Amino acid sequence: MNILIIEDDIPAAEAMARGLMDGGHACVHAPDGESGLATARAQDFDVIIVDRMLPKILGIDLVETLRREGDQTPVLFLSALGEIHDRVSGLKAGGDDYLVKPYAFAELIARVEALSRRGDMGSVVTQLKVGDLEMDLIGRTVQRQGQEIDLQHREFQLLEFMMRHAGQAVTRTMLLEKVWAYHFDPQTNVIDVHVSRLRSKIDKGFERPMLQTVRGAGYRLDA
């Protein structure tokens, strides 16, 4: 992978780069938001690692600018700010993941590799199909047996995640982290409520139900 590190703490950036390069990755370092934005514009990267608090241009502003310009390179925010509202604001700004300092380097590597896989998938997949259920990711439409299904934004996100993991049991915790993008109490019933609504829309009136409850585990979408 080719990774851009935008970090004003030079020793921390150098240590991060050494670890990533030891794992076989190429790294470019930018010490502030202004040079980071220029580097991101000038080269193609598989993942960008951005410190949230940067001189010249803040990390959030940098990412928002890239997204407005159409750059969809996966972004991992690093920050000492770890409250829920901090993580949410970073993700809403266009970040794909958020890691709080201090962090374990093994977790950083795992998250970077996961983002790279997500970026590869997102660059080629525009439609999902599970049995007779079809989703157009560009047009944001869903059909089953040719019949259009009207979904709310969160229902669409929930179904997209389950279609990408069709045939697999997905837990409530997975759905909360990947669809809602931050952590709720895993005992909350928000997942059950949304799954119930989604099930009524994609299964009601069709011969075979697709959205199944996996007792003790979570849910599974199965053709």
Q: Any overview of this molecule?
A:
It contains eight helices and eleven strands. The protein is α/β, with parallel strands linked by helices and 223 residues long. It has two domains: 2-124, Rossmann fold, CATH 3.40.50.2300; 127-221, Arc Repressor Mutant, subunit A, CATH 1.10.10.10. A five-stranded parallel sheet has the order 2-1-3-4-5, sandwiched between helices. A four-stranded antiparallel sheet has the order 6-7-8-9, with helices on one face. It has a two-stranded antiparallel sheet with strand order 10-11. Helix 2 (33-42) packs parallel to helix 3 (59-68) and helix 6 crosses helix 8 (190-202). The mean pLDDT is 88.
Summary of the model, kept short:
This protein is α/β, with parallel strands linked by helices.
Gross CATH architecture of the largest domain: 3-Layer(aba) Sandwich
Biggest sheet layout: 5 strands, parallel
* Elements, N to C (H/E): EHEHEHEHEHEEEEHHHEE
Gap between N and C termini: 35 Å
Looking at CATH, the homologous superfamily of the largest domain is: Response regulator
CATH C-level class of the largest domain:
Alpha Beta
- Strand-residue fraction? 15-25%
How much helicity do the residues have? 40-55%
Integer average pLDDT: 88
Strand order of the largest sheet: 2-1-3-4-5
Structure annotation, total helices: 8
Spatial shape: elongated
Q: Which runs of at least 5 residues are low in confidence (pLDDT < 50)? A: none
Q: CATH fold name of the largest domain, please?
A: Rossmann fold
Roughly how many Å is the radius of gyration?
Answer: 19 Å
What structural category do the secondary elements indicate? alpha/beta
